[in-house]
Each structure stands twice: as structure tokens, then as C-alpha cells.
Amino acid sequence: xxxxxxxxxxxxxxxxxxxxxxxxxxxxxxxxxxxxxxxxxxxxxxxxxxxxxxxxxxxxxxxxxxxxxxxxxxxxxxxxxxxxxxxxxxxxxxxxxxxxxxxxxxxxxxxxxxxxxxxxxxxxxxxxxxxxxxxxxxxxxxxxxxxxxxxxxxxxxxxxxxxxxxxxxxxxxxxxx
Length: 177
What we know:
With about 180 residues, the chain is an alpha+beta fold. About 25% of the residues lie in helices and about 30% in strands. It is built from 4 helices and 12 strands, in the order αβββββαβββααββββ. The chain has helices at about 1-20, 75-80, 135-145, 150-155; strands spanning about 30-35, 40-45, 50-55, 60-65, 70-75, 90-95, 110-115, 120-125, 155-160, 165, 170, 175. The strands form 3 sheets. A 5-stranded antiparallel β-sheet has the order 4-5-6-8-7. β1 and β2 form a beta hairpin. The longest helix is centred in the N-terminal third of the chain and has 19 residues, at about 1-20. The N and C termini lie far apart (about 70 Å). About 25% of the residues are buried. Mean pLDDT is about 80; it is low at about 1-25 and about 160-175.
């Protein structure tokens, strides 16, 4: 009987913490990736959509992080990884927060507050220069990409009323037309 009670207590100690944990909400759990008229690579999350220049399609690596989604220039990321540095080529991380404490960060771009879900969205941008500098072509590509982060920030759209207009596309919450 003593052994049964010990096993029961051990089992309860193992299971109860897992049951007590609340499921963590992530604004980035699901993503739809598509291109629009060859102009944009579109990352469509449940509550926000990012439009990246189409030239980035084969030049970026995207990773899920604890608080968001990080975007890297693939060439720099790979070259720095060969030297033991795992975050080379960092362009930005799309993040969400229930409060505006992110404004204390040294480098960020505020995308705004999404009333639909009650979250602030922002981009964390590098405070250093993470391009791989030993290869001029890789460095030039990084410079071009990092120079367009403001454009990515300006084009970000919140759900459920995604309205973004260009010369030949109109996006609404019902889809592309």
C-alpha cells in the first residue's frame, strides 16, 4: 500500500503541473505564405499580414521564436553559422505584446495596436550590423534588404480588415481580388 501511495503521489506531481499550465496564445501559430503578382512574398498570420519584396523569396530564412517570427538573410545566416554564430543575417523579428513595454527596446519599429485581438505588433530590428562582411555580394544583398525594412513595416496590415491597395491588387479580409 505504501508503494501504491508513493507511485500515486509521484504521478500526481508529474501530471498536475502540466494540467495547470494555460495554453500559450501565439499570434504566429499559423501562417499562409503566398506571392502576389510577383511583387510581394506575403506572410499572412491570423492577425497581421506582412508584404515582403518578391526579391526576398529565396533569400530569407524564417524561424519561429519564443515571442515572434524572426527573418534572416539566408546567405549571412549560413556563413556566420559556419563560424559558430547562429544569428548572423538577422533582419527583423515580428513580435506581439499585450502592453507597450517594447518601446523600451533600443531598436524597434511600432506597427500599431490591433483592436481585434488587443495586441501591439512591432518589429525588433538589429542594433548591430549582422551582415556577413567577408563577402561583398552577401554584404550588398543584406544592405539592400535591411534598407527595405521600413517599407515592410509601412505595408503591414491588421486583420480582420486587411485593406492594402497597389496598382493592380486589392486585398480584403475576403481574400485577393
